[in-house]
Amino acid sequence: MQSSQVKITTEYIKLEALLKFEGLVETGGEAKERIQAGEVSVNGTVCTMRGKKIRPGDSVTLDGLRLDVV
Fold first, then answer.
1. 46-54: long-range contacts (C-beta < 8 A, 24 or more apart)?
2. pTM, rounded to two decimals
3. Most buried of 4, 13, 50, 58, CB within 10 angstroms?
4. Is 14 in contact with 51 (CB distance < 8 Å)?
5. Any coiled-coil ranges, and where (predicted)?
6. pLDDT tens digits for 40-70?
7. d(CA 33, CA 28)
């Protein structure tokens, strides 16, 4: 599994915004669909809440790519 670090300068970033920011999805609509379809994991657990707050220390997985938020 590939992994990369994502540095954020705010307290948190919403899950759908993170996916768009990192280019894993093209649009917010695609992010919504993929999250609600159960394709995204946060810290190893499937997450279906697109507004989930992702903070430093969290990891997000989609399509075999892990994003480690720092």
1. 47/15, 49/15, 50/14, 50/15, 50/16, 51/14, 51/15, 51/16, 52/14, 52/15, 53/12, 53/13, 53/14, 53/15, 54/8, 54/12, 54/13, 54/14, 54/15, 54/18
2. 0.92
3. 13
4. yes
5. none
6. 999 999 999 999 999 999 999 999 999 999 9
7. 9
